[in-house]
Write a structure and sequence with these properties.
The chain is α/β, with parallel strands linked by helices. It is built from 18 helices and 12 strands. The longest helix has 17 residues. It is globular, with a radius of gyration of 22 Å. It starts with a helix and ends with a strand.
Length: about 425
């Protein structure tokens, strides 16, 4: 077998077999197949697509390119959540301890932000001392003790995706459903989970801009998970305006703690509860999402979910005094309000522009080697449907320097639309798949 025969088969619209994919992906990970042949195959997949069986097969081969975490020593059901990424999406942080407080274990391997979407690891690392790079035995120890642990991908988990994702990024082959599905699902399934809830974001601030694209991705992800014997549910959720009132790493930790205290913004709290309810059903501790909701609200009210979060942070080496007093988190040198020029109702807040402004403030990266500023970002964001008076802040910008601030300020006027209509606050849940 030669790599070019497999590329040719896919280029001509053929269906790749398990042995084709094993040979190709295995060879690529070992370094026997060079980047240029992998790029050619990725482009052929981009144009020709893959059947559901092929995608499941590619996912399985990628997942087994490295270690699969053995969670069999943990007797609780293991359920995780994956979000396709959005602006202000801090949901994993309150969600994991909330679900763990209800008796379902959450082994969460998260990513970093790239471009305008934030990453859970960067947010957690704004807690001084928090180590995201635990070894697998340390991860299992935290998981067994707290019921949840949140770490980054290790060298040995899905090495095929590490290599392939970097290559796709520079060969214009990221937006391919078979490649996205196999990339996401191979990493999630390598966590040793029994079930998975997918939060597929849809809208301006998301990867998938239209409902049809979001549905196609959600169906692709759920189909592969179920084909591999896992319990999987997907929610398609709105990402036109930012989630919550903060964007930026330490700022989003503050908001996550507010959610855990039961005083978070309505949309983030609602989404946390919706996703957690699905996870309790998949974990077998609730019979329906509706019946899970009062239990989850009780865990926020009693402070049990917050206690699990503190314990997890402490076991990861993080300082828990910043959870009790968020003013001890990193604070930006420069803070300036962006005020409304007129009175009226907020008609729109553009998630994509807010994401770009946050990036310019220093909260994100434009290349993987950039160092982010944990204190940078935007807080106090108004939401669609709220009334504002002229001169009232629509948001507060946080940056390390005036230069960064001025760059972001250029974008802010276009990000908010204030007018006379009375738009309803848009629903967060669009569809359940
Ligand atoms: N996230 C991933 O992990 N992989 C993709 O291909 C796209 C988003």
């Amino acid at each position: 077998m030669l790599p070019q025969w497999i590329i040719e088969k896919k280029r001509n619209g053929g269906i790749l077999s398990e042995s084709d994919l094993d040979f190709f992906i295995g060879g690529y990970v070992r370094g026997d197949i060079p980047d240029y042949q992998m790029s050619a195959l990725a482009m052929a997949i981009y144009f020709q697509g893959m059947t559901p069986d092929e995608i499941a097969c590619l996912t399985r081969v990628m997942m087994h390119s490295g270690d699969v975490v053995d969670t069999s020593g943990i007797r609780l059901a293991k359920v995780d959540k994956h979000s396709t990424g959005g602006i202000g999406d801090k949901i994993s942080i309150p969600l994991a301890p909330l679900v763990a407080s209800c008796g379902v274990a959450v082994p969460m391997i998260s990513g970093r932000g790239l471009g305008i979407t934030g990453g859970t690891l960067d947010k957690l690392e704004s807690i001084p001392g928090y180590r995201t790079g635990l070894s697998v035995p340390e991860f299992l120890n935290v998981l067994g003790t707290c019921g949840c642990s949140m770490i980054g991908q290790t060298e040995r988990i899905v090495p095929a995706d590490r290599k392939l994702y970097a290559l796709r990024d520079v060969t214009a082959t990221v937006p391919s459903i078979p490649l996205i599905v196999s990339s996401i699902m191979s990493k999630k399934l390598a966590e040793g989970i029994d079930g998975l809830v997918l939060d597929v974001k849809c809208g301006r601030g998301a990867f998938m801009k239209t409902r049809a694209d979001a549905r196609a991705l959600a169906e692709g992800l759920t189909r592969v998970g179920r084909a591999m014997g896992k319990r999987v549910t997907a929610l398609i959720t709105a990402m036109d305006q930012p989630l919550g009132r903060t964007v930026g790493n330490a700022l989003e930790i503050v908001e996550s703690v507010e959610i855990l205290r039961g005083v978070g913004p309505e949309d983030t709290t609602q989404l946390t509860l919706l996703l957690a309810a699905e996870m309790l059903v998949l974990g077998g501790v609730a019979t329906s999402p509706e019946s899970a909701l009062p239990v989850l609200r009780g865990k926020l009210k009693s402070g049990e979910a917050l206690e699990v979060f503190k314990k997890m942070v402490s076991m990861h080496g993080g300082r828990t005094d910043v959870i009790d007093d968020p003013r001890r988190l990193p604070v930006a040198a420069v803070r300036v309000d962006h005020v409304s020029a007129s009175s009226g109702t907020v008609q729109d807040v553009d998630a994509e522009l807010i994401g770009r402004a946050s990036l310019l403030l220093g909260a994100g990266r434009t290349k993987t080697t950039d160092v982010i500023d944990p204190a940078a970002g935007i807080s106090g964001l108004v939401k669609i449907g709220e009334r504002v008076a002229a001169g009232q802040p629509l948001a507060t910008l946080h940056a390390a320097s005036r230069d960064r601030l001025e760059a972001a300020q250029q974008l802010l006027p276009q990000a908010f639309v204030i007018g006379e209509g009375t738009p309803e606050s848009p629903p967060i849940l669009l569809e359940r798949v």
